[in-house]
Specification:
With about 130 residues, the chain is α/β, with parallel strands linked by helices. Helix content is about 40%, strand content about 15%. Strands 3-4-5 form a three-stranded parallel β-sheet, with helices on both faces. The chain has a two-stranded parallel sheet with strand order 1-2.
């Protein structure tokens, strides 16, 4: 499991994560200031995927803003989930709605099982010739 942060914040997000004792949990921190585009632009998600070495169709993006995080992640070809701690989002938004980050791990397990059935990108290239 590889973890990354995609933020519309400044490059100092990395420092905030460090001082909070969280930076070591993430493989990549991508910021809009560092990339030059903001979510929901798919290029910021692509930058994170490239840095992680992960195919978009095998990734899950979890965020708390539907228009920015969910729609942005989808535009980059990722699966998405919305964190809604207050429970005000209607469930018919086309992605899982989570009440807490505790629900992310079971969701990643489900997606891991699905991903294990997908062909690798190298397999797809060999099939194309």
């Amino acid at each position: 499991l590889r973890l990354g942060v995609v933020s519309n914040g400044p490059v100092t997000v990395r420092d905030l994560l460090y001082h909070a004792g969280l930076l070591s949990f993430f493989d990549v921190v991508v910021t809009s200031q560092g990339v030059g585009v903001e979510k929901p632009d798919p290029r910021i998600f692509d930058a994170a995927l490239d840095a992680l070495g992960v195919q978009a169709n095998r990734a899950l993006f979890v965020g708390d803003l539907y228009e920015v995080d969910v729609l942005g992640g989808r535009s980059a070809g990722m699966r998405t989930a919305l964190i809604d701690r207050a429970g005000v989002t209607q469930p018919a938004i086309g992605c899982p709605v989570l009440r807490s980050l505790d629900e992310v791990i079971p969701l990643t397990r489900e997606l891991s099982a699905i991903n294990s059935q997908l062909p690798d990108e190298d397999d797809e290239l060999r099939a194309d010739g």
